[in-house]
Amino acid sequence: MSERLDADHSAPDPAPAAGTGRTETDSATLRRLILTSLEDDKAEDVVAIDLRGKSEMADTMIIASGRSSRQVGAIAEHLVDTLKAEAGILCRMEGKDQGDWVLIDCGDAVVHVFRPEVREFYQLEKMWLSVDEQVKRTGQQD
To answer: Which region ranges are annotated with the description Disordered (predicted)?
Structure first.
C-alpha cells in the first residue's frame, strides 16, 4: 500500500505489524510526527509506503523531496530534532553533509529525503511499490 499525501495527511494509520509487538498507536504517532515535520518544512512529493509484509526493517517508508541540498539537509535535521524532542526517539541519519539523499532511520519508519534529480535517478519508490500502485501514483501526479 502506498498513498500520496495531502496537506491534511488523511492517509490511514498503519495497523500493528504481525508478530512485532508494535502497537498501532506507536506507528500512527511516529508517522504523524514525521508527516507533520515534513509538511512544516515544505517537503514536496511526500509518499508513504507500507512495508509490513514486505520487509522487517520498518513498518513504513516515507520518501520526500527538497528543492535544494540545503533544504534537504534542513528537512532532515528538523525531523531528527522534532522526533527527539516530542517523542524521545533517537534517529540515525546518513548523507546530510552531501544533501543529495538523506536517510533517516527512526526505528519503525525509514525516511528518505532527496533532491528531485537524485530521487528521479534512483526511483526508490519503484523498488517497493507494486505495478498497480505505481500506475495509481503516476495518475495522481498529473
So the answer is: 1-25
